[in-house]
Amino acid sequence: MAFQTIDRKDITRALRSRAVKEEMDGVLDVAGDVIWFHDPIAATGRWDGKSTFGVKPSTTMIVLKTSKAGIKKLISRYKTSYISARKSGGAVDMKDDDKPYITLFIGTQKVKFAATGKLTDSSGKSISEATMTRMQELGSALVFRRAIQDNKEWSSAEKLKQDDVTMNGIKDIWKRVGKVDEVDDEWITNFYKQQKALLAKIGKPNFTEFNRDKGFMDFISKVVKDCCGIGTKDNWNPADIWLIQDETKWRGKIKEAMAEQTTMKSIHKLNAIMRKLFKERQVFGISLKKIAAGDDNAKIEFVNDKSEFFDKLNKLRFSYIAADCKMGKKTDKEGAITLSTQDTRLYVKDGSNVYNFQIKGNNSTDFSSLKYEPTASGATAARLGKATVELVLKLLKSYELPFAKESSSYPVNAKEFENNKGGNWLDLIRNLQKNRVALDTKTAEEAYDNLAFVFGTKPHVANSKCQQIKWLNLFLSLSAEERDKFGTDMVFLAKKEGEDYGPFAKIY
Q1: Cα dist. 88→85, 137, 194, 474 in Å?
Q2: Tens digits of residue pLDDT in 457-485
Q3: Structurally, how many domains does the chain consist of?
Q4: Does residue 503 fall inside a structural domain?
């Protein structure tokens, strides 16, 4: 098996130890906005979190690959670090040339971080994740066009690969957008599975436009911003591409209907229009997720498309079950005293499904505001997205919970902490303990002292923890019923489900 793309979330999900997970998060943060690759065979170390990584050291080297630029950032940061592949004095297992790599200890496991040609163009220049995403989505749109408008049918991914017109189109996208000469077979398989799922669900409507860039995408993004006050289209509808019949006609109808609409409430009018067009297969938005290599088929589901969907949502009520905000102490790999974790966890349950919201700093190595990254266990695991920061803040406001999002609103040193900048921190920690939040300390006073100490060693970690303490206290100020509803709303934010969101099909 060859190296395959692996999401950051999937990299860290396998790690059982939160301390080790934070260590990996720090490494991934340093590498920046990159795409990761992993080969799941034994020769490069199984990423399963059961028999090897995250449980006990594997005798086999685990290898992760990304762009040359990302690896060079790791080398610059960790070449003299304690976590480099010599336990003292810095890295000896590294190479900084045209094919750079560095081997680091993540926990007690050796992991080799190496450059891959998959993220570089024909000149050796790194391809950004945004560029790779554009290539993928344009490829999907082209294959949909061939299948629907040109009435092409393929019995397998191999048959698609033998279709010269389709392959030349995909190769042109790869060359034109990413300056990449070859298309990996995994993408051909992905495109085949996507179109197979789509056609099985909707057949072949008479779509005339298969849009990803500019065109309708720019039009609807402007409508959402100008008429509804939503700055980012994806905060309303995560559709990556649009399949449309008679684009000129429907642009005019939408523009006419939304004229002089300028408030957030206008989103409900727009959504009613878009639901009708979605149902009639006139304007059909699709959110695309890469199909995992081990999955035989893609899945498709419709979201926010009809009243029955919302009736079902309205009946759902997830339960808040627990939270932790750990403030024990540990020594990190650099020898500095820090908190036992950099995050806070909020757990929400729905039957057998547990939604685990990780609340932590947006940057694990510097001062930053919070981000909200959910994972799920159970049947819904593959369907969960990120909770947009702006919408979480809006949710807090709707519950009249006054939360300051800027890191500067909280202590940046021990003096400001002891002077209670941003809140009475001892009282707030005591309240967490009163509400059975796991602190990883015997007393609230011990947690307070640990936090004060860490302001002297890792001030950005302590600052972020203060933000989390304040956020969690606001949540806990709600009644039991409101906590459940808030947790339910958080899940809907992550999944982009509800009457405030536009209709779309999700292929995953």
Answers
A1: 9, 45, 49, 44
A2: 999 999 999 999 999 999 999 999 999 99
A3: 3
A4: no
